[in-house]
Every structure is written in structure tokens, then in C-alpha cells.
Amino acid sequence: MDINQTAIIHAARIGEIPVLKELASQNTDFNFKDEKGFTPLIIACYNNQYEAAEMLIDAGADINGADFGGNTALMGVCFKGYTNIAQLLIDKGADLNRQHGNGGSALMFAAMFGRNDIIKLLLDNGADKTLLDSKGLTVYDIAVQQNNEGAIELLK
């Protein structure tokens, strides 16, 4: 990574908005991937940096950009439980039904990790609960495996 890419990743991680704005004013490409395949948007979202995520999206970051495993920013916030950032990503057009390398979706991540408020949010916005992962499991099957009774109720 070059010096600007290192600065972007660090600024995205800690929500350093002035640095990100300065880099955006220089027409910086916010869609590069670091050595793990993470984009600045994925980093910002995973670290609960709402303002940085919004700024990156508005500056042209690919909302559906994925890491080397196919995981998107939306999948990351569903894992972490950041409902406000999930709403931002949905409002900005994130693909609710994108599946990563093993077929998992944002809805499946939310069910797996007990993020029932995000399950409701995703369902209310049209997430497909019939998708199958690489093992042939639906989000309902995953909720049952996790004994996530709240998700089971939402998914019926």
C-alpha cells in the first residue's frame, strides 16, 4: 500500500473525517483493497464509524465492495450489530441479498449473531429469507441452529 492508502485505512478506522475529506478533495480512489482485501468503507463500518462510512459512500466508495472472502460492509455491520450503519447502508443502496464465498448473506450474519433488530430491519427492507448458503441452509435454519428464538419468530 502507498502512503495515501495507509492514511485512508487509518482515517477510516478511527473516523478521522478531516483527513478523509482532504483525501476526497484530491479525487482519491476509495475503492482499493488492503492486504486483507478490506476497503476503506468496510473498515469504517466494521469499526462503527458512521460519519466516515457516510462520507466514503458520498465520495464514491463502492457500497457493495467486498473483501477477498466476499464479505461486504453490510455483512460486517450485521455481524457487529451496528443497526444505525446498517440503516445507512440500506438507505444508500447496499445489496441486501449479496452472498459471500460460502453463500452467507447479511441476514444470515444477523441471525447467526443474534442481531434481531437488524434482522427486522433487513426484512422490512426486502431481504430475501429464502436464500441458501453453501450447505443448503436458509436463514431460518441458521436461527434454529443458534437457538435464536427472536429470529425464529421474525422469520416465520
UniProtKB/TrEMBL annotation:
It comes from the Bacteria. One of its GO terms (biological process) is proteolysis. Residues 119-132 form the Peptidase A2 domain. ANK repeats lie at residues 36-68, 69-101, 102-134. The keyword Transcription does not apply. One of its GO terms (molecular function) is aspartic-type endopeptidase activity. The keyword Methyltransferase does not apply. Keywords: ANK repeat, Repeat. Pfam families: Ank_2. This is Ankyrin repeat domain-containing protein. It comes from Mucilaginibacter glaciei. The lineage of its organism: Bacteria, Pseudomonadati, Bacteroidota, Sphingobacteriia, Sphingobacteriales.
